[in-house]
Amino acid sequence: MEGVKHIVAVASGKGGVGKSTVTVNLALALSAQGYRVGVLDADIYGPSQAQMLGVKEGERPQAAGEDKFFPLEAHGIQAMSMAFLVNTREPMVWRGPMVVGAFQQLLNQTQWDNLDFLLIDMPPGTGDIQLTLSQRVPVSGAVIVTTPQDIALLDARKGIEMFRKVNVPVLGIVENMSTYHCENCGHEAPIFGTGGGERIADEYETQVLGRLPLSLSIRELADSGNPSVISEPDSPVSQTFGEIAKRVASEVDGAAEQGPTISFSE
Ligand SMILES: Nc1ncnc2c1ncn2[C@@H]1O[C@H](COP(=O)(O)OP(=O)(O)O)[C@@H](O)[C@H]1O
Ligand SMILES: [Mg+2]
Ligand SMILES: [Zn+2]
């Protein structure tokens, strides 16, 4: 894909587990480590990245030539989302093929500027968008987000199986909302259970990339457009995102090194 070195999908089977929150913080963590990063919001019905990146309503991408758009820029990250192109207050009543068409346009018509990583914030499920992505562009790997809850794990399994079927390597699991940390008294409670990420990582012979608590500040800061990684760079949460970023970068570069090499002779 033009202007993009590595494409990484952030996915899950289930909605509401924190894909968008993980995507934006992972993007900012990679950026803090010196990579050039873009975020493509593939959630056509429920785009989140405009709000999480603090892009003002009504800000529109500039045209790049005849049939392309420049991404918007926020916190040093390039971003493209349906929310930049339509009025997000009106509900979108679209049939499946229109949604896929819109996604393909975002994918094909964004003029990314020399990215090391393009993170794709996926919608929930294992449907058309997921298939379109894996068929249309070379995806280096997928990060699977899940809560430790059984119902989310069930859906995460489907997500992993799907990526395997289309030969996209699963880079690892991010266990989100692992445990609740009370900001008043410091007590911890495993609201969505424990150990789920580990179990599923073992089952599919992949790794837990990181474990994030259920925390008020993660939600508030993402909602405010200034996610944890830039608002509290030294917090344990941001350090965890930093570690996840390092693992993702090394997995993807490692995979690239094992790939075929081309040499030229006279
Ligand atoms: N670790 C967390 N702690 C607290 N709230 C979270 C956490 N992760 C996500 N959230 C909140 O949960 C909701 C769903 O997260 P989101 O990232 O939009 O999920 P998805 O993209 O998977 O649907 C959002 O309101 C978000 O702010
Ligand atoms: Mg989302
Ligand atoms: Zn308490």
Automatic annotation (TrEMBL):
Gene3D superfamilies: P-loop containing nucleotide triphosphate hydrolases. It comes from the Bacteria. Keywords: ATP-binding, Hydrolase, Iron, Iron-sulfur, Metal-binding, Nucleotide-binding. InterPro entries: Mrp-like_CS, Mrp/NBP35_ATP-bd, NUBPL-like, P-loop_NTPase, YlxH/NBP35. Pfam families: ParA. PROSITE patterns: MRP. ATP binds at G13, K14, G15, G16, V17, G18, K19, S20. Belongs to the Mrp/NBP35 ATP-binding proteins family. Binds and transfers iron-sulfur (Fe-S) clusters to target apoproteins. Can hydrolyze ATP. Homodimer. This is Iron-sulfur cluster carrier protein. It comes from Halomonas llamarensis. The gene is apbC.
